[in-house]
Specification:
Number of strands: 7
Radius of gyration: 28 Å
CATH superfamily of the largest domain: Intergrase catalytic core
Shape: elongated
Strand order of the largest sheet: 3-4-7
Strand content: 5-15%
Order of helices and strands: EEHHHHHHHHEEEEEHHHHHHH
Largest sheet: 3 strands, antiparallel
Structural class: mainly alpha
Distance between the termini: 100 Å
CATH topology of the largest domain: hpI Integrase, Chain A
Number of domains: 2
CATH architecture of the largest domain: Orthogonal Bundle
Number of helices: 15
Helix content: 40-55%
Length: 349
């Protein structure tokens, strides 16, 4: 028998009483009456206008395929560390470590953080969970000078060869290259307007105007070689197509991103390159060559649309960097000529 404030109670009654007293003294949160899945759904809906379409689709996939089956019926306050850790253990049987890290750090933790900020639950218990170890990713390499020359040779005569000088001289993303229209190309001032992206989704692709970040919508410069090359390409290869710079063979329509990637892989294979290396290597090459030739990083970021290296950007004079953009553009052209990498005339059929 136990004695609590003079009362003689059996062990079972004592445990029940202690449990009731504990619950009565604990703070109560509105999250006790809100299902986690309902809150997560509302959170993701609110993020749709803040993240890219393909990212939004990925997060919704996490929600439907993993969060709902695992946490359906649980309230926000039920999301304990043990439950989240058990969830991670189960999905680790199906998913790779990088995907699990993305799901937890980019989606689950922010959802619970917001619930805490709104006073719906006490603290985010998912902060201290352990995810499978992610192996260090292999650094994506740039093309060598010889590889670039061989790719240009392999693409000669192809109706989409105009993509190569664009990729090499500007560092464009595939998503920015394919929706590029001739209206975006200003030959008089030698500039290209980047204002949209072709976003790949699970069920296809969609054309999306850039509206997420200021750095995405930008104007990039063309050197003389690129301008001449694109003018020839427009007048002799795309002469009957006045909309998309890189279009389908028979129609002036958007090119499927996957089909274009296969075309580039074919050129890479014909160039004798055995490594699995694709379109993004051109962007990597542009950045590498620019840095090696002394181009200020802030200028490179203006050209490529990157937003990282904030600290470096603070120490650079943007007004001076703006005046050197044309000079920086000339450097990569001179580098190509000096190393006999690419000449616009080499692609003329």
């Amino acid at each position: 028998m136990n004695n609590i404030t003079g009362l003689n109670l059996d062990n079972k009654t004592t445990e029940q009483l202690i449990s009731l007293l504990t619950k009565a003294t604990q703070p109560h949160y509105k999250g006790e009456h809100i299902r986690f899945t309902d809150y997560a759904h509302s959170y993701l809906q609110g993020k749709k206008d803040q993240i890219a379409l393909n990212t939004c689709e990925k997060y919704e996939g996490y929600y439907k395929n993993y969060f709902v089956p695992a946490f359906d019926g649980l309230m926000l306050t039920d999301m304990t560390k043990d439950k989240v850790q058990s969830f991670i253990h189960e999905i680790a049987k199906k998913l790779k470590p990088p995907t699990i890290h993305d799901m937890i750090s980019s989606v689950l933790q922010p959802i619970l953080n917001e619930a805490v900020d709104e006073g719906l639950t006490e603290r985010n218990l998912a902060k201290n969970v352990k995810c499978p170890k992610v192996r260090k990713a292999t650094t994506k390499r740039a093309f060598t000078n010889e590889e670039i020359r061989n790719i240009f040779i392999a693409a000669k005569g192809h109706y989409q060869w105009g993509a190569l000088p664009l990729l090499f001289y500007t560092g464009l993303r595939r998503s920015e290259l394919l929706p590029l229209t001739w209206d975006d190309v200003d030959f008089e001032h030698r500039i290209i307007h980047i204002n949209k992206a072709l976003v790949t989704l699970n069920n296809g692709y969609v054309l999306n105007d850039y509206n997420k970040t200021e750095s995405s919508t930008r104007t990039i410069t063309m050197n003389e070689s690129l301008a001449k090359c694109l003018m020839y390409y427009k007048e002799h290869i795309q002469h009957n197509k006045n909309h998309y710079v890189i279009s389908q063979k028979k129609t002036d329509h958007l090119v499927d991103p996957n089909n274009f990637s296969r075309t580039v892989r074919t050129w890479v294979r014909k160039a004798g390159i055995k490594d699995k290396i694709g379109i993004h290597a051109f962007r990597h090459s542009f950045i590498t060559i620019s840095i090696e030739n002394g181009t200020p990083w802030v200028v490179i970021k203006q050209q490529t649309g990157h937003t990282s290296d904030d600290m470096l950007e603070r120490y650079l004079d943007k007004s001076k960097a703006a005046s050197t953009r044309r000079e920086a553009d000339q450097r990569i052209e001179e580098y190509a000529k000096e190393n006999n990498i690419f000449d616009a005339s080499s692609l003329v059929c």
